[in-house]
User: Which sequence fits this backbone?
């Protein structure tokens, strides 16, 4: 399975993945998912938001145990972020069938669309729409860098965008959602455990900073006569690092767009995207407010116009304690080890769904902690330990 999925959307130069929502690579990943479902005799469907579901048993019976993740990537992302959870879900089902497990509840494996928000800027679009956290109207406003709207992109990929929106009936059939994901950090490497359980997801968001100055000639315009937005951007990036360090949070300017983007032209517009996260909402608010203030102070002093727009936001997620502890008990009984419970600064579909259904997450050790990079890696033994842990958890939840 892993080797069939591996080449899809991988850039030969960077060896990173470019599996963006509703593109050809996304379509190939979806085809792979459907093949995996159908070769296992599962009932395959896509929901009104384009998320893929593979069912064992009768979905209308309710109280289904659902597991899965996402297949899309960040630009030049790694092979594991998302796909490890989907491949492990199919492998865990294979393992349960090999054990002769008797399912007493429906089981579903899912691929939630557009989790990374790499193309349209909003994280977890597929699960947000389904959970009613993104309205159809707001989704129709999303545009990619070429101005293509989300509905246009869905239509071009052969999906009907007119039905997108909340799907409470579907979520009412779900008794629990468990997402396995490669750890995006080194806690398990440091503790020496192959598998961990999630406790919480930090609140996190994305803010777009538009710095507008005055386009002019790079060679003939005196420094004193310039209104160069690149300087305000640079000052803001440094302020973001300062404020994050002060507050024990994280802040990243990882994406920038410059107009007209000419080597010999002072920019008219510099657009920078801030990703900031913190262990609690107050800290996050403090950091982002301080960064915005620093940006406005500098812009005002230098005649630069600044607009800040919040493009994506996910509040803190505390995974349901009962399900978290049930996973811990099952795995302690099966492995004889106390499984570490760890928080994360990375967002996930499980976080988005956590207000609609009981959700939990399993993490698989990432020896370097590196993620959102072609260098992302997990050892095969740890991935197999993850599959066994997921199979144990699914057996405990769905095969009583
Ligand atoms: O950005 C995140 O935390 C996730 O990878 N979408
Ligand atoms: Mn990711
Ligand atoms: Mn992910």
Assistant:
């Amino acid at each position: 399975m892993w080797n069939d999925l591996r080449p899809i959307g991988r850039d030969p130069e960077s060896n990173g993945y470019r599996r963006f929502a509703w593109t050809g690579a996304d379509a190939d990943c979806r085809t792979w998912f459907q093949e995996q479902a159908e070769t296992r005799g599962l009932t395959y469907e896509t929901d009104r938001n384009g998320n893929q579901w593979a069912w064992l048993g009768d979905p209308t019976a309710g109280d289904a145990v659902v597991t899965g993740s996402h297949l899309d990537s960040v630009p030049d992302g790694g092979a594991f972020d998302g796909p490890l959870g989907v491949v492990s879900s199919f492998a865990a089902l294979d393992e349960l069938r090999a054990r002769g497990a008797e399912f007493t509840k429906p089981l579903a494996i899912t691929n939630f669309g557009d989790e990374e928000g790499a193309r349209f800027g909003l994280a977890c679009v597929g699960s947000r729409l389904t959970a009613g956290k993104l309205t159809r109207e707001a989704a129709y406003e999303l545009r990619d860098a070429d101005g293509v709207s989300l509905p246009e992109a869905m239509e071009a990929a052969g999906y009907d965008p007119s039905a997108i929106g909340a799907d409470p009936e579907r979520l009412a059939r779900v008794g629990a959602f468990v997402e396995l994901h490669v750890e995006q950090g080194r806690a398990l490497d440091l503790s020496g455990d192959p598998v961990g359980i999630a406790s919480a997801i930090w609140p996190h968001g994305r803010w777009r900073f538009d710095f507008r100055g005055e386009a002019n000639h790079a060679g003939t315009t005196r420094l004193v006569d310039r209104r160069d937005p690149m300087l305000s951007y640079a000052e803001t990036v440094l302020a973001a690092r300062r404020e994050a360090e002060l507050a024990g949070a994280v802040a990243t300017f990882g994406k920038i767009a410059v107009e007209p983007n000419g080597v010999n032209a002072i920019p008219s517009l510099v657009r920078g995207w801030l990703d900031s996260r913190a262990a609690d909402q107050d800290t996050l608010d403090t950091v982002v407010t301080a960064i915005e203030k620093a940006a406005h102070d500098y812009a005002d002093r230098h005649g630069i116009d600044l607009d800040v727009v919040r493009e994506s936001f996910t509040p803190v997620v505390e995974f349901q304690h009962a399900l978290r502890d049930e996973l811990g008990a099952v795995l302690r009984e099966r492995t004889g080890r106390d499984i570490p419970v760890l928080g994360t600064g990375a967002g996930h579909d499980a976080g988005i769904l956590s207000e609609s259904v009981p959700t939990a997450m399993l993490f698989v050790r990432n020896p370097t902690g590196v993620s959102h990079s072609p260098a992302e890696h997990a050892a095969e033994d740890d991935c197999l330990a993850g599959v066994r842990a997921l199979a144990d958890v699914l057996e405990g939840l769905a095969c009583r």
Summary: The mean pLDDT is 97.
